[in-house]
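hey so i finally got around to running the thing on that chain from the lab meeting. sorry it took forever, my laptop kept dying and i had to restart like 3 times. anyway pasting the input first so we r on the same page abt which one it is
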Amino acid sequence: MDRIAQLTTRPAGREIAYDPAAAPSSLQVRAAQVLEDNWTGKSTVPSRSLYPHQWSWDSAFIAIGLRHVSPLRAQTELETLLAAQWADGRIPHIVFNPSVPLDAYFPSPDFWRSSTAGCAAGAPRTVQTSGIVQPPVHALAAWLVHLADPGLSRARGFLARAYPRLAAWHRYLLRRRDLGGGGLVSVVHPWEQGMDNSPCWDRPLSRVTPAPARSFRRADLDHGAPEDRPTDLDYGRYVRLAADYRDGGYADEPYREASGGSRQGDFAVEDPAFNALLIASEYALARIAHELGAAAAARQARAERLTAALVERLWEPAAGMFLCRDVRAGELIPERGVSGLIPLLLPTLPRDLAVTLVRTVCGPHFGLGGATRLVPSYDLLGEAFDPHRYWRGPAWFNTNWLLERGLRLHGERGRADALRKGMLHTAGASDFAEYVDPYTAQACGATGFGWTAALTLDLLHDRPAGDRNGVTAIKGGDRG
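ok and heres what got predicted. didnt touch it at all, straight out
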């Protein structure tokens, strides 16, 4: 039996919470092949050419798909990432592969200098990482990976080992990143939010003096069309923010003077998706605690408090969705990005807000079920909309996967089914593209992209009727 056949065949004698189809489909085999091709032995790269290292939230989404073909590899994916955690609790957004040449990706390890610049924050000495973070999807991923093979998970002590690290990660965010004082987490760099080039960042980024273009070389332009990538001006601002954060020892005190003339606090944003994913992972941590025989009520209560804070600080009735908050300016940013729809994932979101979000998703600004098959990353009617430029309009599979779960959670089964069908068709037709034109589904960015293939595998499997999202509160009778 070849490697792909092994990956797509159900192992005998295991309790599998999500059974694969009796005969693996062609799309399933193709998706599994992408993950096999991108596997390094310890983790999965998003793209062999464009992103040759391990990325934090990519690995979480990849593990969610990998659990269907190899629960052990899915556990290993998350364990490799967690092994690079800093002593202060942060999970870095990149874990660098030392066998990859330095010029293959920028910013490279010699830019971040994690083991020296991050010494005070407890950066690991044996592995090189970045110093910023990405959205906290990891506890949700760990719980879903456990459900794929509870027997294997318990035998290996997977959750018992992961739980303290995940708890420390959430502690870091809640204690060190509440820069606005309202209970929500702030990001200090657009790369932390994951939707790097969103027009939502244009206003706070305008305060940042860009690094000189001659001071860095963009490796991304070697693999992607320049007209689809961030501009040199925006990239210069990204580099300046990252360099200032590094030169301040990766400390999180806002508005502190840093080298280069700007201040670390020049970019501090409360983002709806980042916080919604933290809430979803708090619910997942409650389930993990319950599985381990620990108290879970406090985590559920925290998730509910965070949901209330999210509504209070980021909901904008006039927009019909959540908006980002510029912490330094003390105001909401009037741009409609897909991030503001992601809270649909939350189980205790007030019913009227969920109804409004569904209306917005399907309305003229995002067009689901009408103008678009997949939800775009930015407002179709916005002045900055571009159907091909990175996060300024194209549709991405991870955000659409989250919205499919949110629609299903809030009773929109027909819309969820249609979105699922559209995602599966687009994934196969685009060769598992990184992102696509929301109107034409034309492939953009890299093909053979890790999370596109992984989430395709997840969508090909039916979810248990009693827990379609994996984030609902514990009510007894948990599977496994």
